[in-house]
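ARCHIVE CARD
Drawer: 12
Card no.: 0347
Subject: one protein chain, sequence and derived structure
Cross-reference: see card 0346
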Amino acid sequence: MLRWIRQQLGFDPPHQSDTRTVYVANRFPQNGHYIPQRFADNRIISSKYTVWNFVPKNMFEQFRRIANFYFLIIFLVQLMIDTPTSPITSGLPLFFVITVTAIKQGYEDWLRHKADNEVNGAPVFVVRSGSLVQTRSKNIRVGDIVRVAKDETFPVDLVLLSSDRADGTCHITTASLDGETNLKTHFSVPETSVCQSVSQLEALQAVVECQQPEADLYRFVGRITVIQHGEEIVRPLGPENLLLRGARLKNTKEIFGVAVYTGMESKMALNYKCKSQKRSAVEKSMNTFLIIYLVILLFEAILSTILKYAWQAEEKWNEPFYNQKTEQERNSSPILKFISDFLAFLVLYNFIIPISLYVTVEMQKFLGSFFIGWDLDLYHEESDQKAQVNTSDLNEELGQVEYVFTDKTGTLTENEMHFRECSIKGTKYREVNGKLLPEGMTDDSPDGSVAHLIGDEVLFLKAVSLCHTVQISYDQPDLPLGASDPFSHVNGFSSNHMEYYASSPDEKALVEATKRIGVAFTGSRGETMEINTFGKLEKYKLLHLLEFDANRRRMSVILQTPSGGTVLFTKGAESAILPFATSGEIEKTRLHVDEFALKGLRTLVVACRHFSPEEYMDVDKRLTAARTALQQREEKLQEAFDFIERDLQLLGATAVEDKLQDKVQETIEALRLAGIKVWVLTGDKHETAVSVSLSCGHFHRTMNILELLQQRSDNECAEQLRRLARRIKEDHVIQHGLVVDGASLSLALREHEKLFMEVCKNCSAVLCCRMAPLQKAKVVRLLKTSPEKPITLAIGDGANDVSMIQEAHVGIGIMGKEGRQAVRNSDYAIARFKFLAKLLLVHGHFYYIRIATLVQYFFYKNVCFITPQFLYQFFCLFSQQTLYDSVYLTLYNICFTSLPILVYSLFEQLVHPHVLQSKPCLYRDIRKNSLLSFRTFLYWTVLGFCHAFIFFFGSYILMGEDTTLMGNGQILRANRQLMFGNWTFGTLVFTVMVITVTLKIALETHFWTWMHHFVTWGSIAFYFIFSLFYGGIIWPFLHTQDMYFVFVQLLSSGSAWFAIIIIVIICLSPDVFKKVLYRHLQPTSTQKSQQSLSAPPAQALSCMESLCCYQQGQSGCSRLASLLDQMTGHCKAGASNCHTSSRCNRSWSDTETFYSNDRSILTLSPIEGTRC
């Protein structure tokens, strides 16, 4: 029970041993000396809280906020000593703020729990008690034998025991782990591979010993001991025997494996970064401002306390006749009296710290986040997915991004390759309707028939269809037993049931293309490869496979042809093939390859070499000697490969397009114009990554590409970095791009961080390839913690991206094809990369300007509120008498001034959304937290003090110097002159203040809706109505009623009305003049865009119509949209034209300019709304 509680609280002790022993099928030793090891269960946890730690953990996080902690202290002080105001004035707002925030964060974490439960509750099959039992994923234990079927993901880290194949192998893809889509082959040991039935597995006696969990995806050390006929057989285990959680089974009907790492101990989970509380730059600025205001508060409290004792130095003021001290007060310690008075003043002025700021910010973030989900421009119709918000705390951070770190596979690309063109013997060809046609020839030309392909073309197609490592799956579930032989399909050749699996997407695309053209690879078994050439079957014997490696950048096969000859087919990068070619159209092919590359196509060059029997004997001898060498095997193999792959006959080149996601290039260009640097972090190969970067516009053809690749030592890496830094300074090139691989990056980050960062910051684009998941997070952290402290954003779609998503200031998950791990652990989720442009340039821009104004305005109105209270102490001998009634103190921030700023922070638009998209440079205006700079903060603070002085002294001067301390606030008529009491004076100051601060936010509003009018004028009206009722009725539950009839008498005075109007005009007129002058003399880019904006009223759309109509106006929130449109007056009840398909069926058009399309206005007003 104690261990379970420690697990729930996150304090489970670590493993005691360096290794773990796993008994297959949990068949433990029967002797009494065995002590079972304790392992984690198979639950995946991405949430922050549990039922047990929610209250303490959430309270700790909330009271880390300075304002919350401060008001807790004030509340405790009010409970302990006699203070001028009631503890309720501090305690009630604090309780409200804490409760609302806890509910919001609890709800968001509940959504994470819900997503986790979907994964943990997924059905799986395990072998227990001699049968196959279905259970939930979370119930899998270490040692369980798990069955996984084709196309399913592995629910735990498994050691492969057997598969449906006789050799015990299986094929998997790890795209969701490392971004690689190639097919990987994994093996089982011979002793377990024969156990293909449940009964055989139940009888299996085996023990797995392996290392404790570690994050490295490519490292696994262990051994398996199988007991057969009383004899122990020990076999080594490596990464090729381990099936990782999150990987997917391919081209194999089913496998059985034993669970070795479960839940949060699986390698996928260990590559997750620990979830931490992300805090936005705005929140950090708020805390800084709060500290400044806390200093102001302490200064005012200390000054008031000192001045009080300075006044009391005179005997007549120390103990006046109307306030005689008790004997206890006379004998009390002066120090205690000083502290007590200081605390009393602290409580009196404490409202200068705006606690309601936090709850308003929380409400603004929570309600504002719905606009992202409602935005039709962020809705993907094909997959029926809309944008979702997992954490609304970071909305404004979307407007501050300086670096974007993006994955490649599945994020920038669709991960689909398509054959486009090829060059054969110096002639360019393209595929048209399954035919290979020379350039310029059409499909209906008589020469377009495949029958007219001559020997060179056929040889090229054969080379492409044989030089690969592609495997085939015949997807026919109800085939007879003998049909498992791939060659059984040849006679009745049916391509409909054939599915290719390749080590790279390029190979798959090329083999599929040759099949369409007429040369189809139909399978391989053992050493035999078979192709169908225009209906004729040909069998080739595979003699040797020369695997691809990064140094050679090519791969080859040596085959025995059906006629008995020996031929080498090779393909690779042009730089790896053309220098070794001695015949063929070399120059023409080189020219064609350059043309293909300029189109953004991925190119491969194909060549061959024919061997005589004597030459092949020499080749075979060299290869066999190199492969059996015990010393320097890699070097000898390299020498053998170089000897074989020379004197090549050039056949041609291929051009394959890696299909990018829609509008990726435009999105990256928009981000670049907005001043955002884009880094691509991928686990893919160097050549593939560079090709995609060029095709998506991340790298430009005119960009100077620098490389930091294959560095083997610290010194070598440092020297290369220095060379790159010198080259950047010396080269007169506007833009540089940097390519770095994972191994070189590790060296660079070890001791040369500063030098590496210097090179990176001078590059417009950076590409990091062959990156492990935790390396991605390290790169993000490197930028995040650099001296400039830039705001970072990470976007990806797979489990391999989770670490960088959690490390970045803002993490965005792509709802792609590689599972939901990235989406579950992200702050925001979108369906396509192109949606990132609007998410940042429009939503981010709006959220930031709204919340920046909200924060500044809150400090301003609280300075206006409490400064007259401080000034009033000079007129009441620092007796701690309050200027305002306690009800006004409590309701000022909660009721009288809260709604105008909340509505402003939800619907304000400085510029129209389509202008923000068409002019990405406007994003630069708000970078570096510019609207919350110290200069802006100082302006709002000084403005607040100025207005407060005008409120107080304006009321004092205009109402005469007859203010007396009459507690009931009645008007005495003596010599026909009005004499106001302190409550009447305080009410006058409070009335002027409420009107002024409300009109101030009205002046800041650029986009007016009916809601703005309602809350602006409604707040002022509510204050007057409330004050009339509060002061006009005797309330029996109130102990004192100082405000009785005060407000009515005040409004009955003409001079009071005159004072209110004059003071409001004096306060606001300088602000109006300043805005007009600055707009005409020094307009910002945003203000220029405001002036140039003109939107035809006929094209105006209501917010709810735009946000809620998904398909032909039908959606889950269409009823809500209709209701809100009726409330806002855009549609009359029962009108049929509110959601007609003519206005709601809006989609992307290829002819549209990317940035001009905007269907989400994000306000409750049509575009033709009044503008300030």
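Annotation on reverse: The chain has a mean pLDDT of 78. The CA atoms of residues 4 and 12 lie 8 Å apart.
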